[in-house]
Write a structure and sequence with these properties.
361 residues, 77% helix, transmembrane, transmembrane helix, DUF2955 domain-containing protein, membrane
Length: 361
Amino acid sequence: MPTDAAKDKDTSAFVRDERKGARLAIGVAGVFILGMLFQWPFAFLGAVFASMFLQGPTAPSLGAGLKLVLTAFFMLLFGYGLFSVLLPYRPTFMIAQVLMVMWAFSLSVSGKSPLLVILALMEAVMMPFLVHLSLDIGLIFAFALPFNMATALLATWAAFGLFPPRGAAPQSAVLTKPAANFDPTRRLLRMTFVTAPFVILFFMLDGGAVITLVFVGILSFQLAASTSEGPKVAKALLLANLIGGLVAWVAYQLIVINTQFVFMATIVLLLCFILSNWFISGKPSAPLAATVLSASLILLGGTMAPFGDDVDIKMLDRLLQLGGALAWVLLSFVTVDHLLPERKRPPESTPSPDDETRQAA
């Protein structure tokens, strides 16, 4: 069959990029280990950003990296100022948070960079909750996230310097990819209806680890963007996050056997190499390795930093909260699919010959 021949051709044309795997593993592990060593705030986010940067064929330019860090800083500083002022007025505070969530998703439906969308989601869901906990924590987050992003960029540039690409990255696949056809208003509402109720309930009930909010927002963004590709993509994304939770739990159990820092660094490096090897394997499931890596680093880093006597309980809580977040997103999308299904962009009306004749007259 022609389809089988095409598959054979694609398989034979695949070239395993060992340098890309080394860049991803060493760059991400290096940022995570340094963060654990120096214990700077929200250090695990630096490893997550490094993972995003290192998946690309080239490193961000100096100008693009500086623009990204400054954008993150001013966005978070604005969010801190806004929610600090609105903190005494709870109804207005929560309305502003929902509007901020909608703004973040509007960036997605308008075709902005996924990284910018994730930054906006972090501001919309994390900053209000941190300001609610403590103004000092909120201010630390406003400075710590850009710092972690800058650290990730430095690690990315260093990794690309140590393991440069073998040649120019092909751009044809990007250029020929057809534009997505969806109703932007409908998709914006769908993502908001999944995320906003969870954010409100989390805020009202003080629902636990703030990183759970980020999981819900990013999953909503990912699942909405993959709706046209069928339920298999949704199941794969949910499965990847569950695998990430399991990987984090296994890594943590190994680390507590031997609490020496060198042993922890070895486990993290091994984890990153295993997942990066999966990422460059060329298997159909390879793209999921990036999601597994991010989820495992968030859970592991959020549990280990800062270290404390309740780390066992914290890890269990993180896993339970992750499972609850995944269940919420899945059930919410099933409900939203029935009440507000995805639809294509309404066709633009073309003027009829009579209209053109009338206009010409």
